[in-house]
Amino acid sequence: MKVLFIGGTGIISSAIVRNLAEEGNWDIWLINRGNRNDILPDGVHQIIADINDEKTVADAIRDLTFDAVCEFIGFRVPEIERDYRLFNG
Q1: I want to staple 4 with a disulfide (CB 3.0 to 4.6 A). Which of 9, 13, 29, 86 is the partner?
Q2: Which residue, 28, 67, 22, 21, is CA-closest to 45?
Q3: Prediction pTM value
Q4: Domain spans, the chain
Q5: pLDDT tens-digit readout, 8-35
Q6: Residue 18 in contact with residue 81, Cβ under 8 Å?
Q7: What is the CATH number of domain 2-87?
Q8: What CA–CA distance (Å, rounded) separates 30 from 53?
């Protein structure tokens, strides 16, 4: 399974990323600003971008597909709408 985390370095998401990396059968990707690279497990792919810069993110993921996208920081409707535009289909 290929999974993308928006962020992936917060308290909850980093624990999930670490657990999936330990399982070893996941292709793990993160989109974040690259501020906490020191906590990333080996083998995790990182796309350095601000999720709020929708055009940059869209360009960065243009040729990528994911089985799941995990979002732990979407608290307002505009954020969820942005994620839907970026990741639907």
Answers
A1: 29
A2: 28
A3: 0.91
A4: 2-87
A5: 888 899 999 999 999 989 999 999 998 8
A6: no
A7: 3.40.50.720
A8: 15
